[in-house]
Amino acid sequence: MGKAFTRADLPNLQSKLLRDGHVFNAVVSLVVGPDGRRWTVKDFSSRPWYVRLVARLLLSHELTILSRLKGIDGVAEESFRIDGNSLAILFQEGEVLANIQPERVTAQYLLKLEELTREIHRAGVVHLDMRTYSNILIRPDDTPAVIDFQAAQTTWWMPSFLRKKLEDIDMSGAYKKWERFQPGLMGEERKRELVRINKLRDLWVIRGYFGAHVKKEKR
């Protein structure tokens, strides 16, 4: 598809700053496109030249990841490069689990979250930050969605043992949600798996762009 809007269009579009973040992080805004659809825009254009230089590679990487996941229900349907310094991702409606009323997170929802995680893995991608509650949504139809693939990696090139460990780390994000929201229905197998996988947490070496974690505001 073509671009929904260009850099020249941005000043004339309705937008809301979501986070400015550290100098090494993108400025993230919610932008309403000309057709009324909402987009998350990650923009490095105001950052120093040495940040922009690396950011171009990171934005290309994230776009590649999203392209691999196209067609998976629960991942943004569309994304495009606005220019070399910025990326637009179709906004997914829903609430992050960090802000949700606990009773909305049912066992059925959590089972669907596990299956969504497996679909992402079958597409050859690991997210690597699914334990973060602000990266998981509950949509208006009570189904899950996953956002923020900036730390994600492709797995086709990895040795099987490494791919399995990273996929386990992703799955622990789902198990962690069971532990918090539905502990009585979690089951012994998930509990054992969460304990086992928690021992692998030293593998969390990537945390957003340039390894910097930024607190996210409410959606």
Which key features would you list for this structure?
globular, 2 domains, 219 residues, three-stranded antiparallel beta sheet, five-stranded antiparallel beta sheet, Transferase(Phosphotransferase), domain 1, 32% helix, 4 helices, Phosphorylase Kinase, domain 1, alpha+beta
Describe this structure in words.
With 219 residues, this protein is α+β, with helices and mostly antiparallel strands. It folds into 2 domains: 7-90, Phosphorylase Kinase, domain 1; 95-211, Transferase(Phosphotransferase), domain 1. It has 4 helices and 10 strands, in the order βββαβββαββββαα. It is globular and about 55 Å long.
Give the helix tally: 4
What's the CATH H-level homologous superfamily of the largest domain?
A: Transferase(Phosphotransferase) domain 1
Assigned CATH class of the largest domain: Mainly Alpha
Total DSSP E strands:
10
Number of domains: 2
**Low-confidence runs (pLDDT<50, min 5 residues)?**
205-215
The geometry reads as: globular
What is the CATH topology of the largest domain?
A: Transferase(Phosphotransferase), domain 1
Major sheet size, sense and barrel closure: 5 strands, antiparallel
Give, in order, the helices and strands.
Answer: EEEHEEEHEEEEHH
First-last Cα distance: 27 Å
The assigned CATH architecture of the largest domain is Orthogonal Bundle
The fraction of residues in strands falls at 15-25%
